[in-house]
């Protein structure tokens, strides 16, 4: 079953226009025709069995028919991560989306040596991963900022688990309440990063084991660990 994310409101009988990319995917790649069923979701109105109402070169339209899954309360787990090389950042966004992260916060740290972040590209990756993983929402991706700016505005009641390699940190204890995970860059956090982190009362350092993981591995493992501990 093809699942597509749309921006438009969904209700019985609603007409929804496809993007050019979706029209090409349906007609050119998947060889679908008018009358075929696809599933649509927009992050607000649940998931709808919908029919392809129009389909021609570069254009398609749907008619929403039946609600198959009502919108459900989402997980509430945030991931803040130092921007990595392009392919690795893409991977982190894809995997974090599959793992149910609700908010993705790319940051620059002392040792971040990646330049720009293409938010549109990251959002497209998150949409595709949401479609594929049967999520009913697409994670919110924040514009990239400095680590300390994000820490300054971090919500006081949300724990921030900071993954620290080679640190003598306590084992993760199950926590209730909202949480986030912070993963450092390939070069690790710098002394200035660690100083600001140390001053934040919501910070809780965690270890992901005795080996040094690549940042993307640490993100995936850390998210799974937090979820298994009841966070998010
Ligand atoms: N170059 C650094 C390692 C950085 S690993 C060094 O050699 O010291 C990249 C990021 O992954 C780290 O900033 C940390 O957030 C996370 N990480 C990697 N291994 C980890 C571990 N065993 N425990 C906790 N966090 C880890």
What does this structure look like?
The protein is α/β, with parallel strands linked by helices. It folds into two domains: 3-69, Hypothetical PUA domain-like, domain 1 (Ribosomal Protein L25, Chain P, Beta Barrel), CATH 2.40.240.20; 77-229, SPOUT methyltransferase, trefoil knot domain (Alpha/beta knot), CATH 3.40.1280. 28% of the residues lie in helices and 27% in strands. The protein is built from six helices and twelve strands. It has helices spanning 20-29, 86-98, 119-132, 147-152, 191-199, 215-228; strands spanning 3-5, 15-17, 37-41, 47-56, 59-69, 77-82, 103-108, 140-141, 145-146, 159-163, 179-183, 203-206. Strands 6, 7, 8, 9, 10, 11 and 12 form a seven-stranded parallel beta sheet that branches. The chain has a five-stranded mixed beta sheet with strand order 1-3-4-5-2. The chain starts with a strand and ends with a helix. S-adenosyl-L-homocysteine binds at residues 163-165, 183-184, 186-189, 207-209, 211-213, 215, 218. S-adenosyl-L-homocysteine is lined by residues 163-165, 183-184, 186-189, 207-209, 211-213, 215, 218.
Quick synopsis:
The protein is α/β, with parallel strands linked by helices. It is built from six helices and twelve strands. Helix 2 runs parallel beside helix 3 (119-132).
The number of strands is 12
Radius of gyration equals 20 Å
Count the DSSP helices: 6
Beginning-to-end CA distance, first to last residue: 28 Å
């Amino acid at each position: 079953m093809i699942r597509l994310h749309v921006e438009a409101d969904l209700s019985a009988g609603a007409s929804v226009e496809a993007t050019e990319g979706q029209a090409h995917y349906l007609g050119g790649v998947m060889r679908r025709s008018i009358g075929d069923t696809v599933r649509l979701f927009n992050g607000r109105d649940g998931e709808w069995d919908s029919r392809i109402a129009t389909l021609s070169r570069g254009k398609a339209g749907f008619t929403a028919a039946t609600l198959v899954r009502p919108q459900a309360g989402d997980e509430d787990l945030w991931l803040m991560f130092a921007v990595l090389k392009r392919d690795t950042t893409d991977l982190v966004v894809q995997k974090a989306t599959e793992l149910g992260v609700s908010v993705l916060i790319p940051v620059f740290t002392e040792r971040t040596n990646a330049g720009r972040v293409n938010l549109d590209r990251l959002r497209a990756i998150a949409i595709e991963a949401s479609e594929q993983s049967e999520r009913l929402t697409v994670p919110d991706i924040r514009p990239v900022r400095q680590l300390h700016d994000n820490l300054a505005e971090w919500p006081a009641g949300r724990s921030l688990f900071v993954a620290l390699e080679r640190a003598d940190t306590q084992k993760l204890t199950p926590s209730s309440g909202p949480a986030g995970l912070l993963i450092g860059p390939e070069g690790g956090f710098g002394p200035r990063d660690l100083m600001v982190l140390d001053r934040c009362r919501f910070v809780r350092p965690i270890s992901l084991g005795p080996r040094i993981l690549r940042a993307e591995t640490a993100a995936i493992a850390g998210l799974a660990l937090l979820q298994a501990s009841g966070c998010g």
